[in-house]
Amino acid sequence: QKMSRAAERLRLLITHLDRPPAAIAGASSGALSSHSTAAPYTFGNNLLTPEQRLFYEENGFLLIKNLVSEEDIDRFRREFERICRQEIKVPGLVVMRDVAIAKSEFVPDQKAVSKLQDFQEDPELFRYCSLPEILKYVECFIGPNIMAMHTMLINKPPDAGKKTSRHPMHQDLHYFPFRPADRIVCAWTAMEKVSRQNGCLVVLPGSHKGTLQEHDYPEWEGGVNKMYHGVRGYDPQHPRVHLEMEKGDTVFFHPLLIHGSGMNQTQGFRKAISCHYASGDCYYIDVKGTTQENIEKEVKEIAARKYAVGDEITLKDTWAVRGRLVQGARISM
Ligand SMILES: CCCC(=O)SCCNC(=O)CCNC(=O)[C@H](O)C(C)(C)COP(=O)(O)OP(=O)(O)OC[C@H]1O[C@@H](n2cnc3c(N)ncnc32)[C@H](O)[C@@H]1OP(=O)(O)O
Ligand SMILES: Nc1ncnc2c1ncn2[C@@H]1O[C@H](COP(=O)(O)OP(=O)(O)OP(=O)(O)O)[C@@H](O)[C@H]1O
Ligand SMILES: O=C(O)CCC(=O)C(=O)O
Ligand SMILES: [Fe+2]
Ligand SMILES: [Mg+2]
């Protein structure tokens, strides 16, 4: 007899996801069996060295040098340039401008683009999400069933003088209505040298061990980009690490890791490409009554304006339509 979808999901929750790590560690087979109480954030499959595994467990991120080839990155860059020149139209793609120039005249050039979001329908850019060298690491963090949920190409502009090129400190889980957090990971690849000068990523090591915090727009004089929420009450005294990276270097990080990026003090557009992956056996949650209600409201307002849809569209729907299976099985996502 065929189980209903809801029943099937419940079965998965019971057998895999909601069991305490100890129970999972004791399981005899299955994707989660190599997961242990001692190392709840990673799977042991002989790719990560014990040192790398411990580093991710302790810090919530892992930097792999020289992972993506120069040739692939140059291809992503050329595709990005074609999009900027409006030579191709990609369904669902969001082209974002920095708030400092949001109301100025449009020019078909990278100057007018601070970020692309949702490039899952662009086969060339989406190749990034399926690169075997990326997926083999992703599997170490979330297991063999892999969904590409959120895609971005960030083109951080030279700061226009108001510090709007900064990205406030945040936890990516704030944006995601799916769980568990430990079965989500971001891959972020530098498309050129990124340094403190051009606004590299800044992370708070170990912050992935905390809980999801309240997020709001930071009170910044020069303005903040749409939906760039920051953790409320960010403590600038907390020890931070600047991730300076070379072209092709890739950092994998946990969705609770507090991170942001500094202002771009150079004249170049600092480029990075990223994908957030979630396990195919993650499940959606209702964010009503949680700290994520404020972001849900903004997403719904934008969707209503852009696609003329009403309240029948849930936050879950907006993610379910963007997610793409890249390895294994799409079980409950
Ligand atoms: C792990 C996940 C991490 C994250 O996702 S971080 C957050 C990422 N940000 C987002 O997802 C925002 C995505 N952006 C968008 O949806 C669009 O770019 C956005 C902001 C709706 C604007 O798009 P469009 O409607 O196509 O643009 P438009 O030129 O017609 O402008 C419409 C109104 O929006 C304003 N706007 C445009 N870009 C902005 C910006 N960067 N920050 C703040 N406001 C911005 C623009 O001024 C205009 O305002 P008004 O209606 O004329 O008052
Ligand atoms: N009030 C705030 N709330 C959230 N995030 C913040 C806040 N103030 C700064 N940040 C973030 O902290 C990180 C560090 O930024 P900041 O510009 O202070 O230093 P930096 O560029 O890393 O280093 P420096 O300018 O000292 O070379 C960035 O991600 C920035 O967006
Ligand atoms: O500046 C960056 O590239 C980081 C952006 C980021 O953290 C995000 O969009 O969630
Ligand atoms: Fe982020
Ligand atoms: Mg700075």
Give an overview in words.
The protein is built from 8 helices and 16 strands. The longest helix is centred in the N-terminal third of the chain and has 15 residues, at 70-84. The protein has 333 residues and is of the alpha+beta class. The chain has one domain: Jelly Rolls, CATH 2.60.120. The model is unreliable at 12-33 (pLDDT under 50). Fe (ii) ion is lined by residues 170, 172, 259. Its EC number is 1.14.11.18. GO terms for molecular function: L-ascorbic acid binding; metal ion binding; phytanoyl-CoA dioxygenase activity.
Class from helix and strand fractions: alpha+beta
CATH superfamily: q2cbj1_9rhob like domain
**Helix fraction by DSSP (H/I, runs of at least 4):** 25-40%
Q: What is the CATH fold-level name?
A: Jelly Rolls
Query: Gap between N and C termini, in Å?
Result: 22 Å
H and E string: HHHEHEEHHEEEEEEEEEEEEHHE
Number of helices: 8
- Please describe the biggest sheet, giving its number of strands, its sense, and whether it closes into a barrel: 8 strands, antiparallel
User: Average pLDDT, to the nearest integer?
Assistant: 90
Question: Are there runs of 5+ residues with pLDDT below 50, and where?
Answer: 12-33
Radius of gyration: 20 Å
The appropriate CATH architecture is Sandwich
The geometry reads as globular
The distinct bound ligands, ions and cofactors come out as: Butyryl Coenzyme A, adenosine-5'-triphosphate, 2-oxoglutaric acid, fe (ii) ion, magnesium ion
Whole-number total of structural domains: 1
Number of strands: 16
Strand content: 15-25%
Q: Write down the CATH class.
A: Mainly Beta
